[in-house]
């Protein structure tokens, strides 16, 4: 899965690839892939300690990590004695961020699984009216629960997510129109 991390105003492309129970994380030095500057590659294993806390093993180094996030993709991470803040945007949110306030979503909007995981909660039913930003489905991935929210106000036209269901990256979970 591709993400765009924004740290202190600097954007970096981050590509996460599941490898069984671990992950390969490619951190590019800029907002896109470049042959001139190869990415930093980390092999990461994560164990969920409790809600919002992980034990990480990255390139042979172990660390405890406490996470807080909000609906807009902003994170605060306590790693050791330091707090790091950043935004993490998937490709769709990144396009909207780049467009500024000049972009509105029209027509049916598909909500997909951001990465392989398992549906742990379905918060709506087909036919429900939803507001922009309202939670639709909660997917557990990379040992964290991710609430997927409606990109616009409308009606849940399709609902493919079922609690306990494993999902692949890009799997269609719902459609809001």
H/E element string?
EEEEEEEEHEEEEEEEE
> The biggest beta sheet, please?
8 strands, antiparallel, barrel
Q: Oligomerization state of this entry?
A: single chain
- Mean pLDDT, all residues: 86
The portion of residues forming beta strands comes to: over 45%
Q: Mind telling me the C-alpha Rg?
A: 17 Å
Indicate the overall shape.
Answer: globular
How many runs of DSSP E, i.e. beta strands? 16
User: What is the count of helical runs?
Assistant: 1
Q: Level of helix content?
A: under 10%
Name the structural class.
mainly beta
Regions with pLDDT < 50 over 5+ consecutive residues?
A: none
Lateral strand order in the biggest sheet: 1-2-3-4-5-6-7-8
Cα-to-Cα separation, first versus last residue:
25 Å
In short:
The protein contains 1 helix and 16 strands.
Structure description:
The chain is mostly beta strands. The chain has 1 helix and 16 strands. The radius of gyration is 17 Å and the shape is globular. The mean pLDDT is 86.
Quick tags:
single chain; 177 residues; mainly beta; four-stranded antiparallel sheet; globular
Please outline the helices and strands.
Elements: E1 2-7, E2 10-19, E3 22-27, E4 40-50, E5 53-58, E6 61-69, E7 74-79, E8 82-90, H1 91-99, E9 109-112, E10 117-122, E11 129-130, E12 135-141, E13 144-149, E14 154-159, E15 166-167, E16 172-176
Antiparallel strand pairs: 1-2, 1-8, 2-3, 3-4, 4-5, 5-6, 6-7, 7-8, 9-16, 10-12, 10-15, 11-14, 12-13, 14-16
């Amino acid at each position: 899965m591709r993400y765009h991390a924004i740290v202190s105003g600097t954007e970096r492309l981050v590509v996460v690839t599941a490898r069984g129970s671990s992950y390969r994380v490619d951190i590019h030095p800029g907002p896109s892939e470049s042959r001139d500057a190869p990415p930093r590659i980390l092999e990461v294993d994560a164990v969920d300690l409790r809600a919002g806390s992980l034990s990480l093993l990255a390139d042979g180094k172990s660390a405890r990590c406490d996470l807080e996030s909000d609906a807009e993709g902003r994170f605060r991470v306590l790693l050791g004695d330091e707090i790091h803040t950043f935004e993490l945007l998937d490709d769709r949110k990144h396009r909207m961020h780049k467009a500024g306030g000049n972009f509105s979503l029209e027509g049916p909007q598909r909500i997909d699984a951001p990465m392989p995981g398992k549906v742990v909660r379905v918060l709506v039913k087909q036919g429900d009216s939803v507001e922009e930003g309202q939670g639709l489905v909660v997917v557990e991935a990379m040992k964290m629960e991710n609430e997927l929210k409606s990109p616009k106000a409308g009606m849940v036209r399709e609902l493919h997510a079922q609690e306990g269901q494993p999902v692949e990256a890009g799997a269609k979970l719902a459609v809001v129109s």
